[in-house]
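Hi C.,

You asked whether I'd gotten around to modeling the 485-residue construct. I have! Everything is below, sequence then structure, no commentary in between.
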Amino acid sequence: MNKKKNFEEFKFESIIGMGCTANLVHSTKLPPTQYRRAWGAIYDCGFPIVPNDHWLFGSLNVMKSHSTHWQLGRLTRKYGRTYGLIQGCHPTIVTSDPEIDPSSSHPDTTYEVHEFAARGERWKRIRSLTSKAISNENLRKLFYVMQDSVNRFIMDLENEIIDVKALDLHPYAFYTIIHFWKLSRFQKLTFDIISRCCIGRPYSCQQDDPNLKLLLKKFSPLQRCLPDLKWISLMCAKLCLRFRAAFHLDVDPLVTYTDYLRRDRSSFLYFMKCVEDERWNGWTVNADEPCDFSAMKIIQKLTPGEIINQCRFLTLAGFDTTANTAAYLIYLLAKNPMEQEKLYQEIAVLDEITFDSVQRLSYLHCAIMETLRLFPHASLLQSRTCVKQCKIGPYTFKENVGVIFDTWSLHYDQEIWGNDVKQFKPDRFLNCATIQKKNWMAFGAGPRQCIGMRFAMLEIKIIICSLLKKFRFHKTENMSEFYMQ
């Protein structure tokens, strides 16, 4: 046990040391060469360019802070809907124009890749095969698994509420480099649900789940210290895996975990295992090149590495974002008792919470959409890389330039949403105008829209229905406020 602990400490210290050294060496090369390339990639393209805040890091402080969405809103008001800036040495275009989507997501041509990192033919294959696991038909089968986890969550709340006047469902905590995550009740619940639905865990576990802590270690501390050097983190992770294999240490624990679990016939893992082929290497042939998706024949195969990484991706993407959305909605209902009462009246008529009954709750659906309009907290993941120079409207997008969608500015545009844009009004989605539907992008837009949108919406509906059947939400005296800047 001590040897394993010492190895983990050595690994962390070595990674940080290597990262700092590489950052120093890499930085000395930036000004004369890569900065000129970065400026050339966005210069004279039809949009304004934000002046650098730092001679070396450019506008990296804007893109790598906790207030990035507010800072992008400030820049949008100053420079317009589309503008360019430099992230370290990376040319980037920021836009809140829904018509602009020049490309695919950031590429990763390594063997073990998931849908979010893949592109071209490989992305289409992984996306299509994963979509079958998250189809409406399969979600209907998984509904009772989700409901069972939520029922256990409600039972725990009922037991705790006896001894206290108020419960903190989703505390906000600052993180340190190593211990950066203080898990909330909602996070434990949503991880329990995604573990059972994605990987097929046969039981519910919402207290001290060791696999949740295991998964959170996949967030590299190096990326938080030196966020512009992600490639070093990936390189060190691969070296550590080879080192473990050479000395017969534990392999990737998630691989062992997924192999151990029961193959539930409705879990996402089961669907992917059905098309697994460990000998197939067809993904290497033009897998990441631009292609015509409409004429493409989808090969019904996934490699073991793709399955493992797709499970990891779906698990990471599917628990924290859903927990945050549920927490924001509860917060808004506590602040707006009239809307809470209206939602309660809609839910109260349900004799039983079923897959079909929650789909008919129109006001609940609107409340979730309004929450995600006000807090599109995963919006910065909607980034693209231009794979080929193109022109969209008056703007030129050069090859390999990054594109980030400023969803917050779009969701707070008074010309689209009206003068009450900062208020929580679910009714605005009951008779939503075409322009509003087009500009609601909480889950992204286009072919790369979030694949788990239906799963997340169903999960949140079950959680809110079950909670409002039992409890009411009220503001406490010390409850913090979120200010829409």
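If it helps when you're writing up: The longest helix spans residues 304-335.

Thanks,
B.
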